[in-house]
Design goal:
The chain is mainly α. It has seven helices and no strands. It has helices spanning 18-38, 42-71, 78-99, 104-127, 129-155, 166-171, 180-205. The two termini are 23 Å apart.
């Protein structure tokens, strides 16, 4: 099986100003909502939240692409990074759909939440890209926590350690005998990478010095589509 990068669970960006505190407060409200609605149904939680998590990267890539066209300037690699983030979060969704089949009600929730979040995040990015990236950084901090709790549920026998879906084995280059636990480990590593990248973008926009190197990204398949 592919080497799974270790994740530093202690990473947390301390709010430096009002915008950071607003970003953290908003994230905590969403975390409370997810905990209330899903409790410990982590597979179903992942399905709904990954549909939201795939939005910021696409929004950021789109707005930065248009900005660079207008200004005729280089994007410093931001567009490709954000597009990769959006695609990666979508693959998380496709994986967990195989693990926890979404109900009709959850599909309706996804439709409503995604539209509201997309429009709100697009508007926020136009007003303050820095705050938008800080929110995503805090989102990903919470995602790392959630997947760590999911691992605990699996390790303690409260959630079944199912065989890894074929789409996950292909995308993360996992062994044929990989399990759901292996999938959660690589998904958590993905989220840790996105956490550090987005906090880094927010700090760069704020004129702050880089806080350190981003968490290592797991190996992904060059071709995300499986052969029919």
């Amino acid at each position: 099986m592919t080497d799974i990068p270790l994740v530093d669970l202690s990473v947390h960006h301390q709010p430096r100003d009002l915008r950071d505190r607003i970003a953290l407060g908003f994230t905590k409200v969403l975390r409370w909502s997810a905990d209330t609605f899903f409790a410990k149904r982590y597979g179903h939680r992942a399905i709904v939240l990954e549909t939201v998590a795939a939005v910021p990267g696409m929004v950021g890539a789109t707005i930065n692409h248009l900005k660079c066209l207008r200004r005729m300037c280089d994007d410093k690699g931001w567009i490709r990074t954000l597009m990769e983030e959006a695609e990666n979060e979508r693959m998380h969704l496709m994986t967990f759909i195989e693990v926890a089949k979404p109900t009709l009600f959850e599909r309706m929730v996804i439709l409503g939440v995604q539209w509201v979040f997309y429009l709100a995040f697009f508007a926020l990015y136009l007003v303050s890209a820095r705050t938008a990236h800080r929110i995503v950084g805090y989102f990903e901090e919470e995602a790392v926590i959630s997947y760590t709790l999911y691992l605990k549920e699996i390790d303690e026998g409260r959630s079944p350690n199912l065989p890894a879906p074929a789409i996950a084995r292909h995308y993360w280059k996992l062994a044929n005998d990989a399990t759901l636990r292996d999938v959660v480990l690589v998904v958590r590593a993905d989220e840790a990478h996105h956490r550090d990248v987005n906090h880094g973008f927010a700090s760069e926009l704020a004129g702050l010095a880089p806080t350190g190197k981003a968490a290592p990204y797991p190996a992904h398949a060059d071709d995300i589509r499986q052969a029919a």
